[in-house]
Amino acid sequence: MEQTFIMIKPDGVQRNLVGEIIGRFEKKGFTLKGLKLVSVDSAFAERHYADLSAKPFFNALVEYIVSGPVVAMVWEGKNVVATGRKIIGATNPAESAPGTIRGDYAIDIGRNVIHGSDAVESARKEIALWFPEGIAEWRSSAH
Ligand code: CMP
Among 27, 111, 112, 121, which residue's CB has the most CB atoms within a 10 Å radius? Predict the structure, then answer.
């Protein structure tokens, strides 16, 4: 089953949006497979955003991600990567539709509340980076 990596960024945690965001993924029908509140250091944030290292906003982005705890999650379900991106909304909150997380809760591209993997392959890499210990597994089919 497809999985994606979702991170509630420091502004989302600080603004008490964790429950709201988790609720949106739960109510859509996705399954929570991994969840932790973590503070990462610059080296780790640079690995997560390695593809953006040439961007002019890279240093500011890394500083922002290390500024406070983030909620790292793995969500599972049919088309969860693409549908998760729809639930999150466009990267720039000026373009994200009302009803999406960024459309409802953000106005600044540098403080856009949440990250979601952009493709199945990046989800696989991001889950391996953030959850090297693995994720919880159901041990029976009773659920
Ligand atoms: P995210 O989905 O985490 O992926 C990369 C992040 O870079 C993005 O969300 C934004 O937070 C950030 N970002 C993208 N473009 C800009 C920009 N022009 N200025 C500042 N931050 C940006």
Answer: 112
Q: Tell me how long the chain is.
A: 143
The interface pTM score, or ipTM, of the predicted complex is: 0.93
- Write the residue with the smallest CA distance to atom 12 of ligand 1: 110
How many CA atoms are closer than 13 Å to the CA of 30, on its beta-carbon side? 28
| Angstrom distances, CA of residue 132 to CA of 39, 49, 65, 125, 135 | 16, 17, 19, 10, 9
Asked about 115 being catalytic, the answer comes back as yes
Is 112 one of the annotated binding-site residues? yes
Are the C-beta atoms of residues 49 and 129 closer than 8 Å to each other?
Answer: no
| 121: amino acid identity, one letter | E
Return all residues near 72 (Cβ < 8 A) that are at least 6 apart.
Answer: 5, 6, 7, 34, 35, 36, 37, 38, 130, 131
What digits encode the pLDDT tens for the residues 77-91? 999 999 999 999 999
- Tell whether ligand 1 has an atom less than 6 A from the beta carbon of residue 96: no
- Residue pair 6/25 in contact by the 8 Å Cβ criterion: yes
Indicate the pTM of the whole model. 0.95
